[in-house]
Amino acid sequence: MKSVAVLGSTGSIGTQTLEVIAAEPENFEVQSLAANSSIEVLAEQARKWKPSVVGLIDDSRAHELAAMLPDGTTLVTGQDALADLAASADVVVNGVVGFAGLPVTLSALSAGKRLALANKESLIAAGPVVRQVRSTPGAELVPVDSEHCAVHMCLRAGEGTRQLRRIVLTASGGPFRGRSYESLSTVTVQEALNHPTWSMGPKITIDSSTLMNKGLEVIEAHELFDVSYDDIDVVVHPQSIVHSMAEFSDGATIAQLSDPDMRLPIGYALAFPDRLATPFGALDWTKAMTLEFTQPDRAAFRCLDLAYSAGRSGGTAPAWLSGANEVAVEAFLAGRISWIAIADVVDAALQLWDSTDADTLEAVLDADSRARRVASELIDAGGFQPALSAPRVTEPNRTTAKAGQ
Ligand code: MG
Taking a C-beta distance cutoff of 8 angstroms, is the pair 218, 232 a contact? Predict the structure, then answer.
């Protein structure tokens, strides 16, 4: 029986983690649950799972939540609460969104725990800082991101990284796969939010439409597996069945296949080195299936190469890329800039990167906040393609949106 801390329990990763645990209650118990501010959902989860501790980052409604918790469950609040919870369970699921997930990653690894990592920011912005604590005895990082979990499985089935030639990350291509750069200048927020194969939050869905998500995953793969950027490739695979691949020195490629279902990578990270007895995403081979692989259009989806470039620069450049991108995506969602301007803002912000090192948490946090400020100032100053007129943004034609897929 493993005790599990489900941090970010009310989000997509958190709720699916609880579904996996519900399937195998003989193997896992919920030790703690934590969320940012969704107290109603958190209270409901606590009544069902009866964890010993519940954490709430935003403490303004702590009294309300305390009244809703079952007997025997302790409430802890504030920014530091999650880091404390991360130090005490056998497995820590980090499903916290954004930068708030970084202390969870550092705390779980420093305490020598298994970290099931779904929070991208930890590795992308703070890779060098995370590297320092990964060598703590007992510390183990198993990625939950579907591509990296696939690579983890492929390396385990092959030779590890010893005779690895390259990692091939697959990308669905998002809703705009096959579209030219020119035609992308007119896409709406609703079209960009319409992902063909994965159902995710708005930020990551927009990142999928620009391929920035894949670019961030390239950086994540570099940090996780210590593979050079020259040996990490991206192929577009619209069916999202092959979740990524590893090619070895003798020419053999090992791939991991399943239907897109996040409960498989979550369960893998919980059960490792065992496997769940419950199947999630198993393929039905009695039905005909076609798998396609094509090269990404790097001119239309500029964010991919911007991420490679930031990754190769190293230091705080990936933190800078990630911070500027978040600001640009917010501006797009708010109708302030066009979809193609997201890459333009990130590009302009990266050119103002100050070449600092990412050797401490403070340096990373500082780079993140400065990148956000720089990106905001660039957007305020104008010069980027503005958003489309309001009616097209607020009244999407669903038929047209679907046709692009
Ligand atoms: Mg992914």
Answer: yes
Asked, for residue 35, whether it belongs to a domain, the answer is yes
Are 291 and 370 contained in the same domain? yes
Domain that holds residue 315: 151-381
What is the 220 CA–ligand 1 centroid distance (Å)?
10
Domains contained in the chain, number: 2
Cα 357 to middle of ligand 1, angstroms: 27
Question: Does any domain span residue 332?
Answer: yes
CA of 67 from ligand 1 middle (Å) equals: 37
pTM value is: 0.92
pLDDT band at 199 (very low <50, low <70, confident <90, very high): low
Q: What is the DSSP letter of 156?
A: H
The CATH number for 226's domain is 1.10.1740.10
Q: pLDDT at residue 390 above 80?
A: no
Residue 75 confidence (pLDDT) above 80: yes
Distance 389 CA to ligand 1 centre (A): 32
Rounded distance from Cα 238 to ligand 1 centre (Å)? 13
Q: Which residues contact 345 (CB under 8 A, 6 or more apart)?
A: 324, 327, 328, 331, 337, 375, 378, 379, 384
Q: Which residues contact 20 (CB under 8 A, 6 or more apart)?
A: 28, 263, 266, 267, 270, 276, 278, 280
Identify the three-state secondary structure at position 34: strand
Question: In whole angstroms, what is the distance from residue 69 CA to residue 83 CA?
Answer: 21
Dihedral sign, Cα of residue 385, residue 391, residue 393, residue 398: negative
User: Ligand 1: distance of its center to the CA of 377 in Å?
Assistant: 30
CB atoms within 10 A of CB 133: 18
Distance 155 CA to ligand 1 centre (A): 17
Asked whether residue 111 falls in the same domain as residue 198, the answer is: no
